[in-house]
Design a protein that fits this description.
By secondary structure, the protein is an alpha/beta fold. The chain is built from 9 helices and 8 strands.
């Protein structure tokens, strides 16, 4: 573990948020980086950069800890962040950082129009909005008039460090290349200072020990979060399987009810057919009785003797002796 952490410390560059913070604590470097990000502000000086400064917008609100925080001679506020991993919450994250930074821009009793401007700057080791831009500058605007920017003093700037578009000016590109560990022009004064500062940071035993402790904590935290996510995933899978089981059960019940209805309908149809057959048989029986009685009467009118009539009726209609007797008893 110690060897792993030692190598991790040695390899850590500006893309590592801890190393980035320690490098950006250098006054001259921080000032020059801000000048390259915002050349139109013509920043002359800043307060000594402060890292891991914590703000809370309310006593019971979630606290925010800035990577690098400073102000310039005009009172403008700057929060500079290194975002290593994409947690897919960048927009909401910027919103909260900007809220905390903006709160510092309002002094008690000061008119709103005199509030200082606030800049939240994110260097992302990924494309924060997946739109292919190298730099994203965010302001509020009117939906119905998109080109109309609302000048509320808040500006969010995000850099897509891995991008190779080179849409920024060469000086800013040099800083982005340093973060991404790409080839840079060695004569750039900022590049020289950055390399020197990185070497100073790496030699600092206190920072190295702090980095290792923090790395161990982060790995433990990551492992705990992984177990929590795995547990949550299993719970979600269990709930999903339970829900699917309930749906299958409901489907089975519906199919059972449908089967029962079809059986009942079949039974009802069978009863109807049986009743129809019985009615037809009854009708045939009644018709046969009428024919037999008519035949007996006709033969009697012809003065045919009873014995002959009985024999004739019995053979013609295939009747039993009992039925013949019933007919002639009438």
């Amino acid at each position: 573990m110690n060897e792993f952490l030692r190598k991790k410390w040695e390899m850590a560059g500006l893309a590592d948020d801890y190393s980035f913070n320690k490098v950006m604590l250098d006054y001259d470097i921080c000032l020059e980086v801000l000048r390259r990000i915002l050349p139109d502000l013509h920043i002359k000086k800043i307060k000594l950069p402060n890292n891991q400064q914590e703000f809370a917008v309310a006593p019971d609100a979630k606290a925010v800890r800035f990577d690098i925080y400073t102000t310039d001679e005009q009172g403008n506020h700057y929060d500079i962040e290194m975002q290593v991993a994409d947690h897919h919450n960048i927009a909401k994250r910027i919103r909260y950082y900007q809220t905390a930074s903006s709160m510092e821009a309002y002094d008690k009793g000061q008119p709103y129009e005199q509030a200082d401007d606030s800049y939240v700057i994110f260097f992302c080791n990924f494309d924060p909005f997946q739109l292919g831009q190298q730099r994203y500058v965010l302001h509020k605007h009117i939906d119905e008039i998109p080109e109309q920017i609302i000048e509320d003093g808040q500006t969010d700037i995000l850099f897509n460090v891995p991008s190779l578009r080179h849409d920024v000016d060469p000086k800013m590109q040099a800083f982005l290349d340093m973060i991404a560990q790409r080839k840079v022009e060695a004569t750039d004064p900022l590049v020289v200072k950055l390399k020197e500062r990185i070497a100073v940071v790496k030699r600092n035993r206190k920072w190295r020990s702090e980095y290792m402790r923090r790395s161990v904590y982060e790995m433990d935290q990551e492992m705990r979060e992984k177990k929590i996510r795995e547990g949550e995933r299993k719970i979600r899978d269990g709930k999903r399987e339970l829900l699917e089981g309930k749906r299958e059960l409901q489907k089975g019940k519906r199919e059972l009810q449908k089967g029962k209805r079809e059986i009942k309908e079949g039974q009802d149809r069978l009863k109807e057919k049986e009743q129809l057959i019985q009615e037809r048989e009854q009708k045939l029986h009644e018709n046969q009785q009428t024919i037999i009685k008519t035949s007996i009467l006709a033969m009697r009118e012809l003065n045919i003797d009873e014995t002959t009539i009985r024999k004739e009726i019995k053979e013609k209609f295939n009747l039993s002796d009992k039925k013949i007797k019933d007919y002639f008893a009438e």
